[in-house]
Structure formats: structure tokens, C-alpha cells
Amino acid sequence: MASAADVIAQTENAFFPVFTRHDVVVDRADGWRVWDTDGREYLDLTSGWGVTCLGHCHPALVEGISRQLTRCLQAPNCNLSYTPIQAEAVDRLVKAAPAALTRAFLTNSGTEATESAIKLVRRATGRTGMIATHGGFHGRTLGAASITSGEGYRVPFGPLVPGAKFVPFGDAAAAESAIDGDTGGIIVEPVQGEGGVNVPPDGYLAALREIADRRGVFLVLDEIQTGIGRTGPLFACEREDVTPDIMLLGKCLGGGFPVGAVLVTEAVSDTIQKGDHGGTYAGNPLASAAVVAVLSELEDGTVLANCRAMGELARDRLTTMQRQDPGKVADVRGVGLLIGCELRSAEVGSEVAGRCRAAGVLVNVAQQRVLRVFPCLNIDADALTHGLDVIGEAVRAA
Ligand SMILES: Cc1ncc(COP(=O)(O)O)c(C=O)c1O
């Protein structure tokens, strides 16, 4: 096997220089544990950036993907034929989703789900305007970047897809004021992930739903990070009993296999014509097998209940840390297992993550100062408590 130093050098020589990587060279992973090529063990509190909802290499996911791998990896004629596994994936998905979302399209990533939504809004309304939020993140392809607020995602790549207007997150009245004759939709994350784990006030989604209905625009919920159990229920919109016109999924949907989805109501779907959308790998058999495995593992509610319980444990412990060290910790927030611990100083964010890594715990930092704890949804209390203790020590020492 190549040495860790060789792997790093080869990657840095040949891969686009777009990532600021840390020096963990991953050899294998199992559940919430990861081993590097020198045999060092880490606790993964990032679940592969909010993806491995069942933990790394969960047996049901491995078994489901492996079984499909030996039957058919890509259907002949692609989506001009049918496959039983794709049928099962979309059937399970629409049955698991809020009742009014009756149709799904499978994509290869989250950003492609966002692109699909932009097209659907334009197709169905004939309007190009999208209201998005400050701090929102919807992906890095051109359309998705155009409705993502961070300037670094947009400004170097202009001219962008026109029509985006940004309003404060959590402020439904501001969203309504921004609606004009060209507005086709409002897009929000139920909880902003990349923006720093921002939880809106109670009633925000319900207020947006009411406004969208009254003003004749679509409500698009980007549940790419919040969906498939991350916040406790299967979809975060269930917390306010709100059904969007269009819902986007990704990340946890494939448990580590790259797949996203767009779900729509019958009214939206009625506006779609043959040939409007497509994709060589849309609902590819392996991706579909991953969706089937993830949804069936989440079906009986045990993993979701664990997510809620572990989320409470983590918030309690981090809140205690904040009380003990208010000079270092500004805020603790989040829902389910999407938790942010905001440090007072952006300068120490990467130092804290580095100290955690040195102590064998992998933690993510959003917006330089928000430690984001988003482990797999089936993590146990011992592992999580250990990880939080290590975070606490790193914060104290930074
Ligand atoms: C809310 C949200 N939307 C869209 C995306 C983009 O997904 P992907 O990276 O799979 O393209 C992300 C990724 O972090 C996300 O968190």
C-alpha cells in the first residue's frame, strides 16, 4: 500500500486544488469509526459531511448495493428500460414522503436536485425569480450557486442565472415583501446547514407555506442536509406539518452512495413534459439500491428515535459546556443530530478541529466558528459522549 505521504502528494499533484484537506488518509471505516492507513482510529462526528446516516459500511447498505452490483450496474438503454430496483426506490420514497408529494426524480447529487427544482419552477410558472435566504446553501452548479448566498460561491462565476433575491433567513415577512410579478418560488432549508446550523423561529415554514399559497408561488424546501432523518423525523418539514410543492433530497438518502432526489406534488408534475429532464445515471440501479436499503433501515423508527435521543444528549452536554465556558462558546443550537456549537472567535475554529483530530475525533467547522456535530443517526451514547468530551477539552485548550 502507498504510504500516507505518497497518497497526499499524489492527490495534491493531480486533484484540483480546491480543498483545504487535513492529513488523515482513510483506509477503512465501520459505523462511526474510521481508520487511517497507519491503523490509527478516529471517531467520525461528521458522518462523511452529513451523509452516512446508518454509519459507514452498514451491512444492509453493503448487502443491497452488492446484490445489485452483480445483477445489473446500468440498465440497457438507461431510462428507456425499467428496473425493479428503481421502481422500488421511487415507490418507497413517495410513500415515505408527505402525502401530497407523489412523484420523484432521482439525481446523482444534491446540487442536481436543486437544478431540477429551478427548471421545474420555471416550467410550471413561466417565471424566473427565486427568493432565497442569506446564509442559504443549495449547491455549486451554476443555477444552484446563483441562489446560494455566500459571495465566494457566486461572484467569481458571473454572469449568474438571473432571478435570485436574498432575504434574511427566518423572516417570512421579508420573503413576502420580496415577491414580485416575476417570482416563481421561494427556496429555503428547514435548518441551514452550511450557513452555520441556523434554526428558524417556530412557525417559519408554515408562514412561508401560507404566503406561497396566497401569492401563487411555489415553496421549495431544500432538505438535502435535513432530510432522511437528520433532524429526528424523516423530513424536517414534518416538524411544522408543512408540505412543500417541491422537496430536494441528497446526502443521507444514499447513506454514502451518491444520489439525490426531487419530489413534487401532482400539480407540479402535471406541468412536466416528456423530454423536459433526464440524465444518464438518473435512478441508476446501484443508487436505487442504496435508497432502498436506507429507507428500509429507517422504516421502523428505531434509528430516528436514536437520532432524537442522541441529539438531546449532545445539546445538553454542549449547553453545559457553554455555561461553564461562556467566554469561549457563544451558542449551542440545532435539531436532531444536526447540531452547531458556535465559538466566540472564528480564529480558533480550525484550531479546535485540529485538536479534536489529534485526539482521534473528526469534527466539522461551518463558517469558521461553528463546530458542526452531525454524526451517523445510529451512533451510541458512549461514542457520542466521548466525542463531546474531546470537543470540550479542545475548546478549553484553544
Ligand atoms: C442544503 C444543501 N443543499 C445542497 C447541497 C449540495 O449537495 P451536493 O454537495 O450533493 O451537490 C448541500 C451540500 O452540502 C446542502 O447542504
Structure, described:
This protein is α/β, with parallel strands linked by helices and about 400 residues long. It folds into two domains: about 60-300, Type I PLP-dependent aspartate aminotransferase-like (Major domain) (Aspartate Aminotransferase, domain 2); about 300-345, no CATH class. Helices cover about 40% and strands about 20% of the residues. The mean pLDDT is about 95. The protein binds pyridoxal-5'-phosphate (PLP). Pyridoxal-5'-phosphate (PLP) binds near residues 193, 194 and 225.
- The stretches of 5 or more residues where confidence is low (pLDDT under 50) are none
Class computed from helices, strands and strand pairing? alpha/beta
Q: Please give the radius of gyration in angstroms.
A: 21 Å
Total strand count, please?
15
Overall 3D geometry?
A: globular
Largest pleated sheet: 7 strands, mixed
User: Oligomer, anyone?
Assistant: single chain
CATH topology label of the largest domain? Aspartate Aminotransferase, domain 2
Strand sequence of the main sheet, in spatial order? 4-10-9-8-7-5-6
Could you say what the CATH architecture of the largest domain is?
3-Layer(aba) Sandwich
How much helical structure, as a percent, in the residues?
25-40%
Question: Could you give the topology of this structure?
Answer:
Elements: H1 4-14, E1 26-30, E2 33-36, E3 41-44, H2 47-50, H3 59-69, H4 84-96, E4 101-107, H5 110-125, E5 129-133, H6 142-146, H7 151-154, E6 164-167, H8 172-178, E7 183-188, H9 204-215, E8 218-222, E9 246-249, E10 260-265, H10 266-269, H11 285-298, H12 302-324, E11 329-335, E12 338-343, H13 349-358, E13 361-362, E14 364-366, E15 370-373, H14 381-397
Parallel strand pairs: 3-13, 5-6, 5-7, 7-8, 8-9
Antiparallel strand pairs: 1-2, 2-3, 4-10, 9-10, 11-12, 12-15, 14-15
The structure holds pyridoxal-5'-phosphate (PLP).
The site of pyridoxal-5'-phosphate has 14 residues, from helix 5.
